[in-house]
Structure formats: C-alpha cells, structure tokens
Amino acid sequence: MQRRPGQALTPHRRPPVVEAGVLTTLLVVGVWAQELLDLFVLGGQLDYYGIEPRQPGTFWHIFSAPFLHAGLPHLIANTVPLAVLAFMSALRSVGRFLAATFLIVLIGGTLVWLFGRSSIHLGASELIFGYLAYLLGVGWWERTPAAIGVALVALFLYGGILWGVLPTNPVVSWEAHLFGFLGGVVAALLLHGRRRGPGKQVP
C-alpha cells in the first residue's frame, strides 16, 4: 500500500471483539490464578482482604474484595456470568469498561463497607451485578438499537439473578449484589448519560 505525500499514518487497532476478549481473559485468568495461589500456597489468607464493614484501616479492601473468592465452588459459580457480562461490557469501549469497573468497585464497595452486615464480604458477584446494571443502563440512556439489543440479551441471560439483591440467604452477601448493581447504574449514567442534541456529535 502506498501513502500519498502528507497523508498521516493511521495506527493499526485490533477489532473490538479481540480487545474485549483479551481483557475478559485477563480478568478471568487473574481471579483464578489468585484463588489457586490462595488455596494451595497461602492457606486462604487472602480472604481476610475482603470487605469488613466499618472496620478502621480496612476500607481499602473494597479494591481487593471483588477479585477474591471463598473457595473453588464460589469461584466456579461466578466464572461464567463474570466472563459473559464483562465481555459484553467491554465490546463498546475498553476505556469505558475500565472506568465502569472502577466505579462499580468504588461505589459498590464503599456502600458495602458503610452499610453491610458485620462479616467478610468478597466475591466477583459485585462485578457481575454491576456489569448487568451497566449494560441495562447503557441501553436505557443511549437508546440506540445496538445498546438496547445488548441490554435485552443481558437481561435474558442473567435477569434471574436480580432476586439476589434481596436478603434471602444469610450466607450470601446480598449487600454486594445490591450495591454493585447501584454502582453499575451510576457508571452507565456517568459514562453514557449524555443525550444527543441537534447538531451535536458524541464519541
């Protein structure tokens, strides 16, 4: 291919599906690697870095808790919905996906730390509920055929988990479910809430 004089070179970019796939793979491999390390090398000590509500000096655990699990059954149960919803969330934009993940972790974790029961809260379900809410929120605020279609697919696949925001099981952190969902709604509002006006273009 020849370039005309003065024509700028356009950097090659991988297709969005590839970028989303790589990011999702890194996320899933990361949570599996740390859980196997915790189980077989550290004897479960990483679980103490879950969220302990209102315990001074442990607030920063909000950034570690969503990536920790209480054993392999817990991790196995979360792996598929985490992978599917993370992949769907990252398809639009890797940058926005990373920003949404940060907001879900920050908002959801902070609310669990402030209002959760006195226990150790950990697990990727905070992210799962957050990503589901994020996809639904993007569909609501953008209202484009693509965004609405993705939201409907996510709702069809995992809408049944929304019952998890209710305190129906004493050993399940419904607080992480509820506040992770709220974090996803806020992330969608902040990242996609701008409406198009006449003559305006949004990225």
CATH level 4 superfamily: Rhomboid-like
Separation of termini?
29 Å
* Basic shape: globular
Q: Provide the low-confidence segments as ranges.
A: 196-203
Domain Peptidase S54 rhomboid: 57-192
Transmembrane segments: 20-42, 62-85, 97-116, 122-141, 148-166, 172-191
GO cellular component, one term: membrane
Subcellular location: Membrane
Spell out the key features of this protein.
203 residues, mainly alpha, Rhomboid-like fold, 0% strand, transmembrane helix, Rhomboid family intramembrane serine protease, serine-type endopeptidase activity, hydrolase
Describe the protein in words.
- Residues 57-192 form the Peptidase S54 rhomboid domain.
- This is Rhomboid family intramembrane serine protease.
- Belongs to the peptidase S54 family.
- The chain crosses the membrane at residues 20-42, 62-85, 97-116, 122-141, 148-166, 172-191.
- Its main location: membrane.
- This protein is an all-alpha fold and 203 residues long.
- It has one domain: Up-down Bundle (Rhomboid-like fold).
- It has six helices and no strands.
- It has helices spanning 16-40, 72-90, 94-115, 125-142, 145-158, 174-192.
- The chain is globular and about 45 Å long.
